[in-house]
Design goal:
The termini are far apart. The chain has 2 domains: 56 residues, Udp-n-acetylmuramoylalanyl-d-glutamate--2,6- Diaminopimelate Ligase, Chain: A, domain 1, CATH 3.40.1390; 178 residues, Mur-like, catalytic domain (UDP-N-acetylmuramoyl-L-alanine:D-glutamate ligase), CATH 3.40.1190.10. Helix 2 packs parallel to helix 4 and helix 3 crosses helix 9. The strands form 2 sheets. The chain has a 10-stranded mixed β-sheet, with helices on both faces. It has a 4-stranded parallel β-sheet with strand order 1-2-3-4. The radius of gyration is 21 Å and the shape is elongated. The chain has 299 residues and is of the alpha/beta class. It has 9 helices and 14 strands. Helix content is 30%, strand content 23%.
């Protein structure tokens, strides 16, 4: 009966479900009539003003868009190995690194990041206007990846996206925190709200596996919370301080590289990175930890 779903009346086709929500810049409820003219067969709305058998009011519709979209696309994220990356800095590079590592071990890994989207990790499909797409678009992207036989996906999760429930309805295998510092206070108003938005990825979205850079206050807080939690997930710390699950040390070389010594729960690894950026190098550790903690052999 329903062949598609859209938040934008301009993208509605025959037999679509149109979701009309009040946005920051436009009100989708003003375009319900247009969506029916274009072929929509049903409409969900966050407004009580409509009296029509084909229009259903749903309180807190925005919060459920991801779940609704996931069901319509037959739960695509459950068919992928998902890596969700958040952090004040380092999200984009960590997502790119995960996709590149996957390619090296012959896994097809799509990505969704600030720089754009690739359904197979090879071809560039779309530029990006948001760090984390709206929930309908996000589930559609996962669906397209499944159609291309993609096995994994790495995607950026912004604090705005978490606060606006864009990732709800997504099955998350590994959640990663790359860093945390004061930012986005124009939106979140205070550091506490910003931290609470970030925490949702590791609590409300219930990832199976968690990688935390604990060289920041938020990473330390979440790690302590997880130690007290009874949630059935695995979690690992990443730090330059001794005692972390993934403990690393960096040594800059004269030729402009960084020699890395990484102690994991299973082994010690030595390698060199062609960069002078220690933050970038720590993102490499987070990406490696994501694979190693899930049992992948990277030798």
């Amino acid at each position: 009966l329903i062949d598609g779903i859209s938040l934008d009346s301009r993208e509605v086709n025959q037999n679509f479900l149109f979701c009309a929500v009040q946005g920051e810049k436009a009100n989708g409820n003003h375009f319900i009539e247009e969506s029916f003219k274009k072929g929509a067969v049903f409409c969900l709305t966050d407004s009580k003003e409509f009296q029509d058998s084909n229009i259903l009011y749903l309180k807190d519709l925005k919060k459920y868009l991801g779940v609704i979209s996931s069901r319509l696309f037959n739960h695509p994220s459950q068919k992928l190995e998902t890596f969700a990356v958040t952090g004040t800095n380092g999200k984009t590079s960590c997502v790119e690194l995960i996709s590149q590592i996957a390619k090296l071990i012959d896994h097809q890994c799509g990505y969704i990041s600030t720089i754009g989207t690739s359904f197979d990790g090879k071809d560039f499909n779309f530029p990006s206007s948001l760090t984390t797409p709206d929930p309908v678009t996000l589930q559609r992207y996962f669906h397209e990846m499944v159609k291309k036989n993609t096995r994994q996906v790495a995607f950026e999760v912004s604090s705005h996206g978490l606060d606006q429930s864009r990732v709800v309805g997504t099955s998350i295998d590994t959640a990663i925190l790359t860093s945390f510092s004061q930012d986005h206070l124009d939106y979140h108003k205070n550091i506490r709200s910003y931290k609470n938005a970030k925490k949702k990825l590791f609590t409300e979205l219930r990832p199976k596996n968690i990688i935390l850079n604990i060289d920041n206050i938020l990473g330390k807080e979440i790690y302590r919370d997880l130690q007290k939690s009874k949630e059935p997930n695995s979690f690992f710390s990443v730090s330059s301080q001794a005692g972390a699950d993934f403990h690393y040390s960096f040594l800059r070389t004269e030729d402009g590289c960084i020699d890395v010594k990484l102690k994991t729960p299973e082994q010690q690894i030595y390698f060199s990175l062609n960069t002078i950026s220690k933050p970038l190098a720590s993102n490499v550790i987070c990406a490696l930890a994501a694979f190693l903690s899930r049992g992948f052999n990277l030798d």
